[in-house]
Amino acid sequence: MTRTLNSPSSAPRRTLVRQVIEQLRGRIADGDWPLGGKIPTEPQLVETFGVGRNTVREAVRALVHAGVLECRQGSGTYVVSTDELSGAVGRRVADAKTAEVVEVRRAFEVEAARLAALRRTPEDLAALDRALAIREAAWRAGGVADFVSADVALHTTIMAAAHNAMLAELYVSVASAMWDTVAAAMGGELTPDRYVDHSRLVDAIRAGDPVRAAREAGAFLEAPDGA
């Protein structure tokens, strides 16, 4: 996708920096520069956006400060978060105690389950069944990373079924930062004692029972090692 900026002669420097920041954000949001990937070099960005080197440098520095980009000496600049909220949450979660992270998850997921039981559509239920099946298959396959990804995907699907856009958007930022904490809770391998059945949670949402859904969502987040 091609984007154009005002020329340096037609806009103040500060405005140009803001424009470049928005362009960088847009490329990241569109997936042109994926999470974990390296963005183009400074000369390439200068050519792409048609602005000066200092303007590009200030824009990149602003997103580094926001936690979206990370400069690695001798390697380049990488995308480490999809937005400022994810970056801020990621830094906060990294510094938080495990018990605090679990409490935040509980605050999000219990309310989402309650709302999902009240608002789920037939399409939501089909998506939940698919997500649950993928999670169970990932557990049987035994790969920790795949299971954690499938577990987060199921909870994100429940968030979507709650039909609260703000709650869902906030959870996406929190969930992406929590992957490492969930993986750490699982340990280096999937063992029977760490298995948590989520079928009862999905059944409660299907039954339209908000009280039971909230109870099921909270049950596996009582202890720090809940998945």
Automatic annotation (TrEMBL):
Keyword line: DNA-binding, Transcription, Transcription regulation
Database matches in InterPro entries: GntR_C, TF_FadR/GntR_C, Tscrpt_reg_HTH_GntR, WH-like_DNA-bd_sf, WH_DNA-bd_sf
Protein name in UniProt: DNA-binding FadR family transcriptional regulator
GO MF annotations in UniProt: DNA binding; DNA-binding transcription factor activity
Domain HTH gntR-type: residue ranges: 14-82
PROSITE patterns: HTH_GNTR
Pfam families linked to this entry: FCD, GntR
